[in-house]
Design brief:
Number of helices: 2
Low-confidence stretches: none
Mean pLDDT: 89
Order of helices and strands: HH
Oligomer: single chain
Structural class: mainly alpha
Shape: rod-shaped
Helix content: over 70%
Strand content: under 5%
């Protein structure tokens, strides 16, 4: 039985095929690990966004409470100010 010699191209082709067969599982595992890390980061960011939205809602409610007429009148009274409707002037913008 006579053995035929492989050409340089065939040897290169087989080497490349073996290299691909060896590296493909490593690349798959690496890409899955990267995807998992990205998903984890996305979920973490969603939690931070939810927390910030809750803080924003709380602050908006606090602003509304502090800006209410009753609260303003209470603070004005504590500061010695009083409401005098005779000092209020209405300006009509239409000519």
């Amino acid at each position: 039985m006579k053995r035929t010699k492989m050409t340089k191209f065939e040897r290169l082709l087989y080497t490349f095929a073996i290299f691909l067969a060896a590296i493909t599982p490593i690349l798959i595992v690496f890409s899955q690990a990267t995807l998992s890390k990205i998903n984890y980061d996305v979920e973490e960011m969603k939690e931070k966004i939810d927390d910030q939205q809750k803080k924003n809602e709380s602050l908006t409610m606090e602003i509304n409470e502090l800006a209410s007429l009753d609260k303003i009148q209470e603070i004005a009274k504590d500061q010695g100010l009083s409401y005098n409707s005779s000092n209020i002037k209405t300006i009509d913008g239409s000519d």
